[in-house]
Design a protein that fits this description.
Its cofactor is Mg(2+). It catalyses: a 1,2-diacyl-sn-glycero-3-phospho-L-serine(out) + ATP + H2O = a 1,2-diacyl-sn-glycero-3-phospho-L-serine(in) + ADP + phosphate + H(+); ATP + H2O + phospholipidSide 1 = ADP + phosphate + phospholipidSide 2. Belongs to the cation transport ATPase (P-type) (TC 3.A.3) family. Type IV subfamily. ATP binds at residues 388-390, 467, 508, 531, 564. It is a single chain. The protein is an alpha+beta fold. The protein has 17 helices and 24 strands. Helix 7 (262-296) crosses helix 8 and helix 12 crosses helix 13. The longest helix is centred in the middle third of the chain and has 35 residues, at 262-296. It is elongated, with a radius of gyration of 36 Å.
Length: 626
Amino acid sequence: MDTSSLRKIYVNHPSAGYQHFNYASNAISTCKYDILSFLPRFLQEQFRRYSNVFFLIIVLLQQIPDVSPTGRFTTAVPFIIILTASALKEIFEDIKRSRSDKEINNFETKILENGQWKKTKWKKVVVGSIVRIENDEFFPADLLLLSSSEKYALSYIETSNLDGETNLKIKQGLECTSEKTEIEQLSELTCEICCEQPNKNVNQFIGTLYIGAASYPLSINQILLRGARLKNTSFVNGIVLYTGHEAKLLMNSTTAPLKQSNIDIMVNGRILILFVMLVILSVISAFGSLYYEHFLLSGAYYLGFTRVSFSFLGLTKTYMYNLLTFFILYNNLIPISLQFTLEVVRFCQAYFISCDIEMYDERTDTVAVARTSNLNEELGQIKFVMCDKTGTLTRNVMKFKRCSIAGKGYGDDEADEFADFRLIADIDNQKCGDYILEFLRVMSLCHTVVAELDNENIVYRSSSPDEGALVRGAANLGFVYEMKTPSSIKIKERDVLREYVILNVLNFSSERKRMSVIVRCPDGEIKLYIKGADSVIFSRLSQESLFKDECLSHLKEYANKGYRTLCFAYRQLNEEFYGKWAKKFAEASVAIEGREYLIDKCASEIEVELLLIGVSAIEDKLQEVN
């Protein structure tokens, strides 16, 4: 990656004063037209309708005196009135879009300015500003999370406007900025951010934060996207990275397209049929007129007509004049009021939609808005409903139900929760006890769940329901995850509190299909714990790994019953090997060019020679039938 193509953002730095001139304004516009583009775009949309093209031709033909049997403005006047009415409707709807944009642009947020929080309109937010967002507020731009009201810069966000998911997602700032919550600390923060240019990918971010001589890798876990909302967190402080139409949400939205409804498409088809009929009638009538005038009337001497010889060229010219005359004469076969009637009906429908009490949402105090009345008739025309399983067909309430450890199956399909306490008794079994302990450690260590204390009770918050189910399952079996900091995690193992030092976390992704954590155990050993899809874990197992056949059999059994399955494994690492690997991983983590590839390469080097522990089975019940 060419470093000149990177975005460099300075905070509380002499270079920060002019950087916002290089970046997009935070004011947005979703209007369909502007002053210069209105006429060409409007005419383009109108003349996609075959009827309008037809009447334009009729208007032009009527300007030829020897051809038109009607007045020059017979069609022109109603045609112009119809186009004007359509233009007024488009202008009216675009004004509503403009008002909506203005309302959003005038939302207020707090910006750190001259040592105090100052309320500022969204449209005036610039890149490099430090902003404070409070609970239930939307993020005005794409932000880098610095600190929050929670410990270790944790925050919870709702992204339903971005991806439709209602589960709260967890974001966490870097440890080096997590304590900077006061105005004085934020005002003294001088740093530089080097990151990728604006792009549409909402699941990835690559950047590096420089504070003095130190550099810290940034990922999507520290990014708060415009359109998301802060939940269950009093406040967060962040640095503005991307504004306006350079924010990921806006980059994923396109210029309002010129859409056609099924009614418009159908009308175009019918008009083509009528047009063909009109041409056929005009051709036949022109032949009849030519024959009558030059062959029948020419012999009616008693009416004063005399027989005259005509050249082929003269007959052809007369025929073409007659053809155009009949073409104009029969133009009412295609009603000029058709499109005008449709426009009026759609305008009235849009009004009734906005006034319909049945379409009012009392919870959010919002009414239905017909932003594009041309598509009113598309409502209720759905033919297919596509849905995934989780949260749509199922309840999205995960429960740890069964497991297989060291080839032995535990759990009961009939029980509501995991209730096979043979597992606890088997911990003292010399043959499989160590495997059970390691299985429970994977459940309680390898995750992104946040533990919170609520009236002396531990509450687990997770953006992944599967991870929450595993952590709760481990707690029910005596391995209680109590607290996590950016550098350590505390687990109460059978009433004995143990602290594990978190050395590295290799996060889950849809490409990797696995997650692993490297920890230093209380006894000083370094271990890698991993969980993931069976197709990935089994391909990385050591030749010395046991119980493969038994686990595969249990995997098949659990899958046939509709359970969600994960394989657990671990690897013990020696100090020398880990030290060399950790150095390579640290370099990969702060690389701007090819960071994702380098991290994946490092992960592939250490996530091998694994020892299989077992398999978990999580139930996600189907929705109740109403």
